[in-house]
Design brief:
binds magnesium ion; alpha/beta; Rossmann fold; 12 helices; globular; binds adenosine-5'-triphosphate; 7-stranded parallel β-sheet
């Protein structure tokens, strides 16, 4: 069975897309799921957190996967390791990653200037199909840039699910309707099977009454049994930041902190159910 592919998408910056890709990926892997993260953001924050650097590497990169649709570079004798697998690097927190490097900037420009009909937005879907022929995964998380650009479109076209992380201030939440319009257009024109994993409130500060009100509003607007559920929130916690600085997932760095024991656990329970993931081993 092929992986459930999840685009982590929000046009707004700093709403924890990258952090969610890392920490949710770790939490899903802890349940015994085979997780792959794919970074589609030229900022390459995930690669930087993982200590993979940001300069141009010799091995296959996501940028080349997107700009070399024929995968000519990947034709190798049967007894050799496929170069495609080289696009996947190991991370210190144990979840394999297809990281972004500087070449994604040029790749984005190249894709943007491709004439219509050249499949500029379908490239990632094809690349993931090829990767999945080489190695099996249960979940593929795609970290999008803070823009509705050709890279995010690639993620949304490749995805089965879209997860929308959002901060809990009025200005951050006001962007959700624009995202829904973008997703509706993708569903209509290029990916009719795309569904919502849900809206995820991040960096929640209970002590700020305004955020509590915003969260209640979202709960009403996006009921749990509706097509766009409001998911269990992730609180603001310095250990989340600290974990990234230490090249770790928060689940690894602070396993007994409530953000891990309560928030991520509830979120994973909900997503396992919604995405119908086959959990092998439930952590204690
Ligand atoms: N639950 C949390 N508690 C505290 N800090 C957090 C939490 N989640 C994320 N952060 C911090 O918020 C900042 C922004 O997070 P992140 O880089 O994941 O956002 P992003 O949406 O990927 O940003 P961009 O749009 O620039 O890619 C980071 O410094 C991160 O460590
Ligand atoms: Mg990011």
């Amino acid at each position: 069975m092929s992986a459930q592919r999840v685009a982590i998408f929000n046009q707004k910056g700093g709403v924890a897309k990258t952090t969610t890709t890392k920490d949710l990926g770790f939490a899903l892997a802890e349940r015994g799921l085979r997780v792959l993260a794919v970074e589609l953001d030229p900022q390459a924050n995930l690669a930087i957190i993982a200590g993979l650097g940001n300069s141009q590497p010799a091995h296959l990169t996501v940028a080349r996967l997107l700009t070399d649709p024929e995968f000519e570079a990947m034709d190798v004798p049967d007894d050799e390791r496929a170069p495609l697998l080289d696009a996947i690097r190991e991370t210190p927190w144990g979840v394999p990653l297809v990281p972004a490097y500087e070449d994604l900037v040029t790749a984005k420009t190249a894709l943007t200037s491709l004439p219509q009909g050249m499949g500029a937005e379908q490239r990632l879907r094809d690349a993931l199909d090829a990767i999945e022929q080489e190695r099996a995964f249960d979940v593929i998380l795609m970290d999008c840039p803070p823009a509705a650009d050709v890279l995010s479109m690639n993620a949304l076209v490749a995805a089965d699910w879209v997860l929308i992380p959002t901060g809990l201030t009025t200005t951050e939440v006001s962007g959700i309707s624009a995202m829904i319009r973008t997703v509706t257009a993708i569903q209509k024109h290029s990916n009719p099977g795309l569904k919502y994993a849900g809206v995820l409130g991040t960096r929640f500060k209970k002590a700020e009454g305004h955020q509590v009100d915003v969260a209640h509003g979202l709960e009403k607007q996006f009921p749990p049994d509706g097509p766009i559920p409001f998911l269990p929130m992730i609180r603001n916690a310095t250990c989340v930041n600290d974990a990234s600085a230490a090249r770790q997932a928060v689940g690894d760095a602070s396993p007994s902190h409530p953000v891990v024991k309560k928030d991520y656990r509830k979120l994973v329970d909900r997503l396992v159910e919604r995405l119908d993931l086959k959990v092998v081993e439930v952590s204690a």
